[in-house]
Every structure is written in structure tokens, then in C-alpha cells.
Amino acid sequence: MQCLSHTTPLRDLVLSGDYKQIVNVDNPLGSRGELVEEFASIVRQCWRGDRAFFSPREMKDLLGRLRDNFQGYDQQDAQEALSMIVDYLMEDTNLVTGPKPVIELNEKSEDETDLECGERFWNDNLKRTASPVLDLFYGLSWSAGSGTLARGANDVHGHACPGIPRPRFSSGLVLIRSFRGAHPQANTARRLSAPNATKL
Fold it and tell me: Fewer Cβ in 10 A, N or C end of the chain?
């Protein structure tokens, strides 16, 4: 919750009260606005400045009502919780109302560049979801191979909290390219070393 509350555009949207104009209580994929309102309450408490700490118990209870695996007080996966919160925030502020169109996800065609395919996928996604949370936290990942690192050739996936696949081959290296737009100078490539062990 602290990480999300320090995301400046999201924090400002909440503290200004502007989020209230876009709460979608009719979206069956959201929480009918409950989660975004509880998140707003937490952000206001964080930034009020008159408390050293507080317990977001109401958010914990709400997460348990929304997903059974978050009920009780067993230890939970932080990335799974973050992903769930971001997904509900996105759906609670989704400006697309009414039935969402069914979008057929076609693989990249031979005459498409990576950028053209990504733009097509993203524009199709915007027909179903238009939210400031989508703009802040979501991106696309591209799998251009097959086997252990991809579900299929030329797969495009939308995500907020991507997992990094663990390679099952001896080199233990994963190449991750980050594309931040159409400008080549904004793109980066990183090699991550993954130990060849049962746990990372």
C-alpha cells in the first residue's frame, strides 16, 4: 500500500477527489467501487501527516471478501496481492461501461513490425479498458520463441506485475528488453542471471 500511495499520479488523483468522477460501480469485473474507495481512505490517512502508523484492516477484510485465498491471517504472496489490488483499482475506474467487446487476439502477422503488433494489441485492449490505472501500471510483454520461456511463438501479453520466467537451461540467462515507446533511444536491454537451482 505504501508503494502504491507513493505513485505520484495515482496519489494525486485520489487526494484531489477527481477519482470519484470515474468510479465504475456497474463493472462486474471490479468491486463495485469498494476497493478504490478503501484505497482512497488509506491514501488520505497516509498523507494526512497526523499519524505515525495505522492498520489497514478494512482493506485486508475487503481483499478476503473479494478473493477467498486472502481470508484469514496466513502469509500471502505480496506480488499476488499487489496484482490483485491494481487489477481491482483498474476495473473500479474503468471508463468503458456496458458489455465489453470480445477481442480476438491474433498473433503477429509476417508483414507487421513488433511496434505495429504491439500498437494493435494495445488499441484492442483500450476498447475493453480505459483507466488511469491502466495508463500507469500496465504494459505488454512479448514472447518471440517457444518452449520454457514462452507459451507460443509471437505471443503478446498485457500485465501489471509480470513474472520473470525461470530458465531451465544451463546458461541461466534471461534477456529482457524494455520498450518505452517508438523511440529507439528509450529502449533498453538487460540480462538477468538465474541460478540453476530449485529456488531462485
Answer: C
Full-prediction pTM beyond 0.90? no
pLDDT, position 164: 56
**31 inside domain:** yes
Q: Which domain holds residue 66?
A: 2-92
Task: DSSP for 110-130, please give it.
Answer: TT--HHHHHHHHHHHHHTT--
Question: Are residues 71 and 12 located together in one domain of the fold?
Answer: yes
Grid cell at residue 79: 506480488
Residue 159 forms beta bridges with which residues? Answer: 139
> Residue 168 belongs to what H/E stretch?
none
Q: Any idea what the Cα angle at residue 191 is, between residues 188 and 194, rounded to 5°?
A: 150
The DSSP letter of residue 109 is P
pLDDT of 80: 86
The three-point CA angle 183-3-166 to 5° equals 65
Check the CA dihedral 50-51-57-59 and report its sign. Answer: positive
Tracing cell 505504501 back to the chain, one arrives at: 2
